[in-house]
Amino acid sequence: MKAKVHVTLKQGILDPQGKAIEHALQSLGFQSASNVRVGKYMELDLNETDRAKAEALLKQMCEKLLANTVIEEYRYELS
Amino acid sequence: MKAKVHVTLKQGILDPQGKAIEHALQSLGFQSASNVRVGKYMELDLNETDRAKAEALLKQMCEKLLANTVIEEYRYELS
Questions:
Q1: pLDDT in tens for each of the 79 residues of chain A?
Q2: By CA distance, what is A42's nearest residue in B?
């Protein structure tokens, strides 16, 4: 199965990387850009055919490694 | 308008970060995980109501700053 995972900062958590990109965009003349938030996007293969098992595995991977659940939230799609 | 941008490495480009995550997952016991590829996911607001203009702006932002088009490709959604 193919998994697509999005890891983003929780609302209210300061995003210095997003702020830096926002300022860079504006200095390049893109004044209309604002509220830039940056996260991680991962794709991976799961050698699992049972959907429920794959979802459980993916959730554990996110909780244990892919996301820092103190400041980040995650969502995933399986196909 | 709200823009969602995915920036990922082009096919064939080595992904050391993905490899590192893959090995970490496997050392945590997730043997079924493979081919991990890591990219950037960005959300931003565009102060533009005309869709065509917003798309043109977003494409320029990607080409100039958000993606290194030598090794990365990008895709975006506007809503």
A1: 999 999 999 999 999 999 999 999 999 999 999 999 999 999 999 999 999 999 999 999 999 999 999 999 999 999 9
A2: B38
